[in-house]
Amino acid sequence: MTTADRIVDAAASLLDAGGESAVTLRAVGLASGVSHNAPYKHFKSRSALLAAVATRDFTELEEAFARIGRERVRPLTKLKRALQHFITYGREFPARYRLLYSDPELARQGGDLEAAAMKSFLTFTSLVSECQQSKQLPSVPPLQLAGLLYASVHGLIDLQAGGQMRSEKGLMGAEAGVLLLLKLLSQAE
Amino acid sequence: MTTADRIVDAAASLLDAGGESAVTLRAVGLASGVSHNAPYKHFKSRSALLAAVATRDFTELEEAFARIGRERVRPLTKLKRALQHFITYGREFPARYRLLYSDPELARQGGDLEAAAMKSFLTFTSLVSECQQSKQLPSVPPLQLAGLLYASVHGLIDLQAGGQMRSEKGLMGAEAGVLLLLKLLSQAE
DNA sequence: TATGCCGGTAGACAACGTCAACCATCGTAG
DNA sequence: CTACGATGGTTGACGTTGTCTACCGGCATA
User: Fold this and answer.
1) Residue spans in chain B of domains classed CATH 1.10.357
2) pLDDT range class, residue A168, cuts 50, 70, 90
3) Of A132, A160, A133, which is closest to residue A148 (Cα–Cα)?
């Protein structure tokens, strides 16, 4: 494993452990066994390092979507599994999840964050499109339906990750929300 | 206008102008004509100041929802107007919008942020409930449907505020997304 | 063998949040 | 009338942070 990888790993761990503010270059350096300035040899700034973490997670997300897409089950089942994976990831790593969709400045830190994000969305779209072809979701333009579903699920996960949607308030969890949404959508056309 | 109000105003302006990182206590002090430490006489910390900004915005949001709820138009029209207001606010003040749903630590900074957020959501829920009573939305538990709608719209606004959902990518805007969602939901039951 | 890049170090700097000490004003208890 | 505590303001200092600059060793290559 290269040093750059170890630095990204350390940043991700710190992110999980203490939120974005815990990702200081000094802590990253300490955790990856280098000095507090070594990250600058691999990333242009702290933001660029965070962008690298986000890019890696987007790529892994896309791989998961693609893997699920190859399973031999009903299209709607694939979609549900993909959404379940998304939700689980968001619940397990809320800080990393929120990083994915944080400031637009992150995307402009160079790198291929935007491309990775777009690719994962397009793979997700193909899952939605499959459901439409098998008449399990209404026949509106696939990109529109996928965008709507993606945004809705993002909203559910984000509110849950931020603690604004806790079940003790009588609200439902992200899983229940997704299932309700899919149920309602499948009744439309 | 009290000094505390001026400080909150300054923080909101800086937030709009340069994002969260631009809200430094020194800049806030300068903009509101006090020293860099005066905010501490009114707010326990920088986070508490940001929480005050968020609380104010949630309150204004709730007032807008309540105002729209008193209009004499069809329930679904009220709901659409409320959502349109929400979207417009998010587009005009993306940094403030994102502050509303940022870290859970903000909510724990004391203050009544959580109560204000809940109140605005409940007022929104009453709009949804009205639509259900007039059979314009499916008859599922109101809190669930409202939560789903709220989260979905939040997702649309948030992705747009973060620049992840730009129309030049062939994706739709938040308004179109909401209209599509309402159209599909109204076909279900 | 000399050289220039690559990846690392250490140190300094300004800006930031926060803390402590100090001070003016003013309503009020004695 | 006076003493005083609370309120809201000030200045200065401290530690931490991101970032910049300078330095340095190894190693491929001309």
Assistant:
1) 53-186
2) low
3) A132
Between CA A56 and CA A42 the distance in angstroms is 15
Q: Quickly tell me which residue has 């009588």 as its tokens.
A: A170
Closest of A153, A130, A136 to residue A189, by C-alpha = A136
Q: What is the pTM of this model?
A: 0.95
Average pLDDT over residues B68-83: 98
Q: Which residue has the tokens 């945004």?
A: A151
CA distance B151 to A165: 9
Domain with CATH 1.10.10 in chain B: 1-43
Chain D positions with an atom below 7 A of a protein C-beta are: 7-12, 16-22
- What does the pLDDT look like over A6-26, one tens digit per residue? 999 999 999 999 999 999 999
What pLDDT does B136 receive? 97
Q: Which residue is nearest to the C1' sugar atom of C7, using CA?
A: A41
What's the CATH class of domain A1-43? Answer: mainly alpha
As a three-state string, the secondary structure of B37-100 is: CHHHHCCCCHHHHHHHHHHHHHHHHHHHHHHHHCCCCCHHHHHHHHHHHHHHHHHHCHHHHHHH
Is B101 an interface residue toward A (CB < 8 Å)? yes
* Confidence at residue B158, expressed as pLDDT on a 0 to 100 scale: 96
Q: What is the mean pLDDT of residues A86-103?
A: 95
pLDDT at position B168: 60
User: Looking at the domain that runs over A53-186, which CATH code has it been given?
Assistant: 1.10.357
Hey, are the CB atoms on A140 and B180 less than 8 Å from each other?
yes
Q: Which two tokens stand for residue A153?
A: 């699920």
Residues 105-134, chain B, touching A (beta carbon < 8 A): 105, 107, 117-118
Report if CB B36 to strand C is under 7 Å.
Answer: yes
Q: Which of residues 40-59 of B touch strand D (CB under 7 A)?
A: 41-42
Joined tokens for residue A125? 């779209």
Residue range B35-54, pLDDT digits in tens: 999 999 999 999 999 999 99
